[in-house]
Amino acid sequence: MEKLASTIAGEICLSKDPGSSMKKWREIFGISQTELAEFLKVSSSTISDYEGGRRKSPGIHVVSRFVNALLRIDKNKGS
Question: Is the dihedral of CA 16, 18, 20, 25 positive or negative?
Answer without folding.
Answer: positive
